[in-house]
Specification:
Elements lengths: L2 H14 L6 H8 L3 H13 L4 E4 L3 E4 L12 H17 L2 H17 L2 H9 L17 H10 L1 E8 L5 E13 L4 E7 L4 E6 L3 E10 L4 H12 L9
Antiparallel strand pairs: 1-2, 3-4, 3-7, 4-5, 5-6
Length: 233
Amino acid sequence: MPRADRLLRLVQLLRRYRAPVSAAVLAQELEVSVRSIYRDVDTLRAQGAEIEGEAGLGYVLKPGFLLPPLMFSDDELEAITLGLRLTAEHGDAALERAAAEVVAKLRAVLPKDLQALVSGTGLLAGPARARPRESIDLAELRRALRIERKVRLEYTDKGGHASARVVWPVALGFFERSRVLVAWCETRADFRSFRVDRIARFTLLASGFPKRRASLLRTWRERERIPAQLGDP
């Protein structure tokens, strides 16, 4: 669970209890550690929540606390909106739907003047160029990246040679004319790039990576001299 969601749920839980409630009970309901509850209580206090009590005794939230509203500068909102429009144009169908849902959520929580900025921004995303049709579900490929699971590919290279191999998906690049999977290939014992439109079949395997994907991605970038991108650790 994202920490922002957990903080919101913690506030909601504290509101349910009129008497002090222990960190152990809160941790059990949120399925986190007691130490995480201690940290989250400190965070909420720093944001202005009047939470009485302490570790070992229990906590109680005084009425009247609201989490800070979602606020962005004009530049930040324009960056978010442009990024979402680019995602809708150049991502796969699931990412397009997700981008539309994010815009709807922003409009629901932003003040009216900032809602108008999202709706009326003049920053436009150009249409994607025609690219070869893909036969696999990119949402499933992105899921393999997130959960760090091995994948079996049936692939045809540019020379027409077909092969089957097990790979560890490391990154998925979205380009104007194609989408490219970067992966560690067990057959070659090295990094390889695969045009997604040349993948005939994709099977998610039960086994995970022996190394963390973030570490593999850093190694690949260093070798290829590709700089890190926004949001990378």
